[in-house]
Amino acid sequence: MPVTNYRTEQEFFVDMQRCIGCKACEMACSECETNGHESMIHVNYIDRAVTVQTTVQVCMHCDDPVCANVCPADAITKDEFGVVHTANTARCIGCSNCVMACPFGVPKKDEAYDLMMKCNMCYDRTSAGKKPMCATVCPTQALYYGTREEIAKMRPNSTPVNNFIFGKESVSTKVNIMMPKGSTSLIID
Amino acid sequence: MDMSLNKKALFIATGVSLLLISFVFYGSRKLQNFDPALIIYLFGTVFAFFGIVYRYTVWLQRPPTWMYFKRTFQFFFTGKIFLHVISFAKEFIQNIGFQKFIYPRGRSRWIGHFLMATGCTMAFCVTFPLTFGWINFTMNPATSINPSSVHMYEAHFFGFKMFEFALGSFVAFVIFKALYWCSWLVIAGVLIFMRRRLTNAGLVATQTFEGDLLPLILLLAIAVTGLGLSYGYEYMKGIAYDYMAVTHAITVIMFLIWIPFGKFFHIIQRPAQIGAHIYKKEGIKRGMAICPHTHKEFATQLHINDLKIVTKELGFDFTLEDGTSHLDLSPEGKRSRLAMAHLKARQQNGGNLFG
After folding, report:
1. Per the structure, how many domains does chain A have?
2. Is the pLDDT of residue B1 over 60?
3. Is the ipTM beyond the 0.85 threshold?
4. Per the database record, which ranges form the 4Fe-4S ferredoxin-type domain (chain A) (predicted)?
């Protein structure tokens, strides 16, 4: 990657209980230059039959990304800042392995492009020291980008968690999810 | 990154390279038709060939790649092989010949890529057989003796005469200047892509010099020096010929030996896309997977089953307590389950919103 002003002290914090489903993040995400103006963020109803609660999902930028591991074309890479980049357009063969293997359900396959695309934390902005588009527009701060000190001051009863248990698999990530104070992991079973 | 030598790949690459050398030897009729002026290009090509086969073999050994490779051949050679051949040929023309999938990503992007790809492919078709001594040209002796007759030129392939054409004819013009056309196509394509890479903010942020710009610069240098060679002796009395010959050779050799390691390897990888399409088509025939959360079809069951095998081979185990797998869920289902797990954690903590 070229020389950057990436600010390593800043992190991403997601709190889905705050998501109101306004989709401002989707609109903002489509402004990101690195996505080719396609929205990469996911906002969906959790279970529309019983609740109006929505959930928001950005790429969690795993420490050992399953998407990159299962890619048969070596199209997905992680950089020195821990950002897992979207598929290399020259290499991606559009097989959807990453789409189906990501435990967070993040990568999207664009059938017309025959290409996988995913959030790369607005690398055009974060590499220039700015915040990702979605986090700058979220009205409820379900998506927040800043320092650990800032989030600790704003959310005294929450703890950022970046360890997720999927059955027998433990996945650690660069992006945090806000959990009740004292939590160490989020168990998905 | 694993830097150790892969013995299987080394063995296969060495074997295939030796086979290529023997084809060069016999294809050029025991070097009778081999042009010694091209010896440096031959070394570069054999090295590139070795590197490509080595990397390809290493690449195939990765669990996800091997799974696709294995399945594609299983499907291709079972059932209606003839239909598979037709479908493969159709996909090859559309996706490799015309790179159809790039068009929706942007018209100028497709035009640029198509020009570069066509120019390079045509150049490969001309230069590789020439370098190997598989193609050579001779003067028809009967017409060359008589000064008043039309001089005929003969084209040979593997030493066999293919056809002949008159010197000075349109056919001669097209054939002798084949690499001119290739160069102009490549130059036009490279300029379109360079403009894109220098002005698109997203690309500027993510591209690297060696990964994205250098390949374009290299292609441009090859095409310009190649044209310079010919135009140099046509219009400049050969003044710059030596310089052009050396720089052209250097840039071409750099291009060749870099194919296995850099961006150009995507040329070799791209046909795998057709394999992925065959895999999907066959998977649909065998049945779709239904997400236990959304209750909708989302992928082929074959794909999900294979992914469970591949992820385990890679050291990931998404088996849940009830014996099912997290991979049985669709992407939307996974996102919802994550949110539900978050809600559960909140409920276990008193149930109130926390801040």
Report:
1. 1
2. no
3. yes
4. 10-29, 48-81, 82-112
